[in-house]
């Protein structure tokens, strides 16, 4: 038994060392890949703990230190909040440390490319504080998502228009037409799914009608002669707002009579839950990487704007001119990159707990419950307001550059 235990310990140590070596190699080439992988792994761990860790946590005296043992849902939420706040502390500390890093010669550059292992030491014992911070930080992350989307669609439009060729103008028209058709067809499905006959579903009808109104307002404002707008951004934002409306209505509690999808969702398979979590992971990671790579929003003053065009995994694997490379300015703001992941950690915690103090309301579904509904609706309204502002602001303040 003693020999078997020693052998198992040696194998585990070797495996951990091998994993650390592999990931460290990836991290040296692209820190963003390593941090994305670490973040995605932490989300998976949060979800697994939410599903299976409650019985164990009930037996831990430093967690279950109450006179009356809380419900199982409390322990499930507690597990998610502990992991997410550990992430929050890790990325926030790195963000503070990385303030002012401008060149690769800075000693902190090495910490950015190899400091991810310290995440394993981050732990938090104040889940109530974690919940409060997560609700605030999640709102900031959703705002960043909206800003990134607007930045993306405007750049997309400017790029295609800049080609000044008939093919790209036709492509603009086709994509815009597809987005508008998608918005209207999607809206029709929303009426079919979420306003069933025989039920008073005035709230759902209000949400859908408001979304349709914003779609028409986008087109009218963008095509107004006084506004230098384009139909492509208007159509893409319209489709996105329609999707947010669907996402909000689909997040309504399964027992709500106006949620037409509940008939097909009472028995949710593990595969469905896995798909939902993977979608969440991809969405959060993409937003963080997009923000961490955006030279327009985050690059330090000394950073070349062309630096963000580099792929996450460089094609050239040689290590020539190493000293020359170290003297180059960093291509994105390390500090802001970690801030985005910090906010994403809080956002993911709210998704896994249904934006509430207990996951019991959502029936173990990811991102289900009335708080989730209103977060989605308000995000859609904020998206609409920011897009309209991006169109009318140059007219209202012509002396400023937007």
UniProtKB/TrEMBL annotation:
Transmembrane among keywords: yes
Keyword field contains Cell membrane: no
First-listed, main subcellular location of the protein, grouped into a coarse class: membrane
Membrane disposition: Multi-pass membrane protein
GO cellular component terms, A-Z: membrane
Superkingdom to which the source organism belongs: Eukaryota
Localisation per UniProt entry: Membrane
Signal peptide boundaries: 1-18
InterPro entries: TDE1/TMS
One Pfam family in the UniProt entry: Serinc
Feature: compositional bias, Basic and acidic residues: 316-326
Entry's transmembrane regions: 31-49, 79-101, 136-154, 166-194, 206-224, 269-289, 334-353, 373-397
Annotated keywords: Membrane, Signal, Transmembrane, Transmembrane helix
Region spans: Disordered: 294-326
PANTHER family for this protein: SERINC-DOMAIN CONTAINING SERINE AND SPHINGOLIPID BIOSYNTHESIS PROTEIN, SERINE INCORPORATOR
Similarity comment: Belongs to the TDE1 family.
Protein name: Serine incorporator/TMS membrane protein
Record organism: Parasponia andersonii (Sponia andersonii)
Higher taxonomy: Eukaryota, Viridiplantae, Streptophyta, Embryophyta, Tracheophyta
